[in-house]
Design brief:
Shape: globular
Largest sheet: 9 strands, mixed
CATH architecture of the largest domain: 2-Layer Sandwich
Number of domains: 3
Number of helices: 16
CATH superfamily of the largest domain: Bira Bifunctional Protein, Domain 2
CATH class of the largest domain: Alpha Beta
Strand content: 25-35%
Structural class: alpha+beta
Helix content: 25-40%
Oligomer: single chain
Low-confidence stretches: none
Length: about 575
RNA sequence: CGGGAUGUGGCGCAGUUUGGCUAGCGCGCUUGCCUUGGGAGCAAGAGGCCGGGGGUUCAAGUCCCUCCAUCCCGACCA
């Protein structure tokens, strides 16, 4: 491809609408343009990168036995009503009507479609296992699309669905996808981690998220410092390590103490001169069924996802001031478990271990000292309901946990019979018995992976593409387009590298060298091949590695070999 | 959905407070000259329903009402 014919409109200045690096650089370097909020047009550069990512994905899906199909974006409402998600999915589902007033949705995911396909075609255990996938646009009417391609309303996703006879079969399929995902992101040149994750509303099943580590990531990941231990988890899910009971302390008599205006843990610790570890923090939550008091140590934060899973409820929110007053008899800030009635109490295991604790007295401006579980109060449930923090011991090996920010680029999920049951996707086993097909689903955000690669690989000058997904392997820059020797040599290089199978861009624009260098750095070609007066006469080429800035001079005859070597290293 | 901000040539912005006559600047774009190793220089040009609608006024980019769009923070997110 020649730059004079190539559509890659770069911008000198940073567009005002972009905040995150990947968004800024994708716009500036001429990869994308915004069409509507959260909806983008992919220009040739982006399309090239996406093609390479998709190709890697296809190869790895096929290697594990996946078969590519293409399902419709437009999905009939009936199927969604059948699965129950027409009502559950909410406003995030793009809905539309045809001229006959029939309702449709733009697919945010394809469990309904694929399950309905399989239920019609698969009847026997002999047809299982089966893995079907597609790479296609997805639609989610996000409340707030943001960060460019990181969270759009239209995005490209690979989704594979596995169909097995039983849980064992599902586990095999799941591990195949786990392996495939590791290979995919590795091949894309990304630094990532598979982490344990919360399974959300579906509950109970295994799920892993694949996180590209980058400071701009929206998710927090905890992982074991010991590289031999592979524990890594989304903070939402991270379990606290089992703790030994501390030194025994004699139980002291309970005392009520006035603590005027001390509502927060910090205020109470300062007023009473005690460490926050001695405080039981009591938070009231409302679910769709009841009011619940959640107890954690004063220096800890509640993990609402864990609490929600513990309670088995659908909705959970912090109780308002009126509810707190009604249930505890005191304003917000003085709740405690002692004497608390008409309210379920859930405690974190750490709370059990606190001897002579301080809690709210359920009375304005008062706290209780020397409170002890069993003697002074009882709880219905003891369960891990708090956030784990960096530095705490790994639940598997005890080494300290480290924290990192991650961008979720993929998730693999054991669905079980959730969709097969409601949609009636069954097969006959060897005994002629009808059984629900056991399913799994496995997604990769393709456009998000492109953005994540930039978040992880850029500098002040622009993008630094990993070679495997770069739009071109190299750019060839003749310093002066008026120097015939340079132009001819650049042309020869272009022809020979193209013939050797490389993707190369010849920057034949009649621009000054500086302009072409700046654009090359911005767009992020892994290699830059400069043909200038210094070297052209000897038929030599300067090879510059974008990532390291390293420059070497190579004879034209050795260039193909040199390029191959360098690309393999990057 | 709550809070905040912004809409003026392709991009980045000034002008709006205090209404005034022909709407500016930088970059980019076109043509010519010149230049060619890190976004050169000179000259001449093209390009604007000042987000839309309604209103106030002799007069609106500027004031009022309303709608829309976009971005940021939060809440939310199989």
């Amino acid at each position: 491809m020649r730059a004079t014919e190539f559509f890659a409109p770069t911008l000198r200045e940073m567009p005002a609408e972009a905040e995150v690096v990947s968004h800024q650089l994708l716009l500036r370097a001429g990869f994308i343009r915004r069409t509507a909020a959260g909806v983008y047009t992919h220009l040739p550069l982006a399309q090239r990168v996406l093609k390479k990512i998709k190709q890697i994905i296809r190869e790895e899906m096929d290697r594990q036995g996946g078969q590519e199909i293409l399902m419709p974006i437009i999905q009939p409402a009936e199927l969604w009503q059948e699965s129950g998600r027409w009502d559950v999915y909410g406003p995030e589902l793009f809905r539309l009507k045809d001229r006959h007033e029939r309702s449709f949705a733009l697919g945010p995911t394809h469990e309904e479609i694929v399950t309905s396909l399989v239920r019609g075609e698969v009847n026997s255990y002999k047809q299982l296992p089966l893995m079907l996938y597609q790479i296609q646009n997805k639609y989610r009417d996000e409340r707030r699309p943001r960060f460019g391609l990181m969270r759009g309303r239209e995005f490209i996703m690979k989704d594979l669905y596995s169909f097995d006879r039983d849980e064992e079969g599902l586990h095999v399929s799941y591990m195949k996808m786990h392996e495939a995902y590791n290979r995919i992101f590795q091949r894309c040149g990304l630094i990532f981690r598979p982490v344990e994750a919360d399974s959300g509303a579906i509950g109970g099943s295994d799920t892993h998220e694949f996180m590209v580590l980058a400071d701009s990531g929206e998710a927090s990941v905890l992982y074991c410092r010991d590289t031999k231990c592979d524990y890594a988890s989304n903070v939402e899910k991270a379990a606290q390590a089992v703790r030994e009971p501390g030194e025994k302390e004699d139980l002291k008599p309970i005392i009520e103490k006035e603590t005027p205006g001390c509502r927060t843990v910090e205020e109470v610790t300062r007023f009473l001169g005690i460490p926050p570890q001695k405080i039981i923090k009591t938070l009231l939550y409302e679910t769709e069924k009841e009011v619940v008091a959640a107890l954690v140590r004063g220096d800890r934060e509640i993990n609402e996802i864990k609490l929600l899973n513990t309670l088995g409820c659908l909705r959970l929110e912090l109780a308002g001031a009126n509810t707190v007053l009604r249930v505890t008899g005191a304003p917000v800030g003085f709740a405690g478990p002692v004497g608390l009635k008409n309210c379920k109490i859930v405690a974190d295991p750490e709370v059990v271990l606190i001897a002579n604790a301080v809690t709210g007295a359920n009375k304005n401006d008062s706290h209780l000292l020397n409170v002890n579980m069993q003697r002074d109060y009882h709880v219905q449930t003891v369960s891990d309901i708090r956030m784990v923090q960096a530095g705490e011991p790994c639940p598997r090996c005890g080494s300290p946990l480290l924290e990192a920010k991650g961008i979720e680029v993929g998730q693999i999920f054991k669905l079980g019979d959730k969709y097969s049951k409601v949609l009636g996707a069954n097969y006959l086993d060897e005994n002629g018995r009808s059984q629900p097909i056991i399913m799994g689903c496995y997604g990769i955000g393709v456009t998000r992976t492109m953005a994540a690669a930039i978040e992880q690989n850029h500098d002040n000058d622009g993008i630094i593409w990993p070679a495997a997904i770069a739009p071109f392997d190299a750019v060839i820059i003749p310093v002066s387009t008026k120097d015939e020797a340079q132009v001819n040599l650049a042309g020869e290089i272009y022809d020979s590298l193209s013939a050797a199978g490389f993707d190369v861009l010849l920057d034949d624009r009649p621009e000054r060298a500086g302009v072409k260098f700046k654009d090359a750095d911005l767009i992020g070609y892994p290699l830059r091949l400069t043909v200038g007066s210094r070297t052209a006469a000897e038929k030599k080429v300067e090879v510059r590695v974008r990532k390291t800035g390293e420059v070497t001079v190579t004879a034209f005859n050795d260039l193909e070999k040199r390029v191959r070597e360098l690309l393999a290293l990057i």
